[in-house]
């Protein structure tokens, strides 16, 4: 991630978003045994900052994708709140959280945040 990447947001909430996404990614990779990877990247794109969490886990079950960001729609053993919280916190910043890819080679989530307070107020 670029050292000069900045984001106008609540630091604790962005931390919580990234922790929820990376926790899920680590759990997915760990379920497959050794050798998997989790990648967190960030960059600027137009008037937004993008943060992406990608893993090489087995992908999400097809039936879970429809209600992915709803509370209690999570995996067995979890609270089912992580993605719902991450989604809501991203929206509270005028941004969006989306599932870009999920297949047997891995899963990619991307959070998009406006660059500035002005952009945030306009959304």
Q: Describe it for me?
A:
It is built from four helices and four strands, in the order H-E-E-H-H-E-E-H. It has 123 residues and is α+β, with helices and mostly antiparallel strands. The chain has a single domain, classed as 2-Layer Sandwich (Heat Shock Protein 90), CATH 3.30.565.10. It has a four-stranded antiparallel sheet. A hairpin with a 2-residue loop joins strand 1 and strand 2. Helix 1 runs antiparallel to helix 3 (82-92). It starts with 10 loop residues before the first helix and ends with a helix. The model is unreliable at 119-123 (pLDDT under 50).
Concise structural overview:
The C terminus is likely disordered.
Lay out the secondary structure.
Layout: H1 11-30, E1 38-45, E2 48-55, H2 62-65, H3 82-92, E3 96-103, E4 106-114, H4 117-122
Antiparallel strand pairs: 1-2, 2-4, 3-4
Helix pairs in contact: 1-3
Quickly list its features.
four-stranded antiparallel beta sheet; 4 helices; disordered C terminus; alpha+beta; 123 residues
DSSP summary, beta strand count: 4
Structural class: alpha+beta
From the 3D structure, determine the CATH topology.
Answer: Heat Shock Protein 90
Strand order of the largest sheet: 1-2-4-3
